[in-house]
Amino acid sequence: MRAAKGDQLVQHGRVVGQHDQVSEVVEVMGTEGSPPYRVRFEDGHEAVMSPGPDCQIRHHEEPRHQH
Prior knowledge:
Helix content is about 0%, strand content about 35%. By secondary structure, the protein is mainly β. The chain has one domain. A hairpin with an 8-residue loop joins strand 2 and strand 3. The protein is globular and about 35 Å long. InterPro entries: DUF1918.
């Protein structure tokens, strides 16, 4: 798993009815994009996470310039 600052970390719900938890990667603490990551949740709190198999990275796309 590789991430960069600005990517989203999505932790999928493990139980029926449990929503996915989405956070933003604010710091990559491992080498070359590997975990652990410091993430910020929608409510503003931060945590250090080493994501497991129930997580995925949504890569931040650079905005395209309009000409």
